[in-house]
Amino acid sequence: MNTMQLNRFVEVAAQLSFSKAAEALHVSQPTVSHQIKALEDELGCALLVRSTRTVRLTDDGFAFLEYANDILDLAARAERRLKHKQRPNSQQLRIGAQHKRATYP
């Protein structure tokens, strides 16, 4: 399982269409179908019910969709954090001042 497969599954679930998902992802429909089939084979269950006109999520598909979204969110957060870490660290500089009374002769 990889994030590419998860992205494609999430898009198919959102669109309820392999062709619309492929268009949104800028890939071919067979590519999306192949990736989803590979994901289902790896998981050992059907995530989607396909017919000639419709696509719908199975019960396992609904359950997995939540995990897929969580995984993709976590991966994006990790990537942002690590990319941010590569920038020079900004550090806080504190300056203190002491008040001295002026003495007059």
Automatic annotation (TrEMBL):
Keywords: DNA-binding, Transcription, Transcription regulation
HTH lysR-type domain residues: 1-58
InterPro entries registered for this protein in UniProt: LysR_HTH_N (IPR000847), WH-like_DNA-bd_sf (IPR036388), WH_DNA-bd_sf (IPR036390)
Gene Ontology terms: cellular component: protein-DNA complex
MF term (GO), any: DNA binding
Organism: Enorma massiliensis
One Pfam family from the record: HTH_1
Record-given protein name: HTH lysR-type domain-containing protein
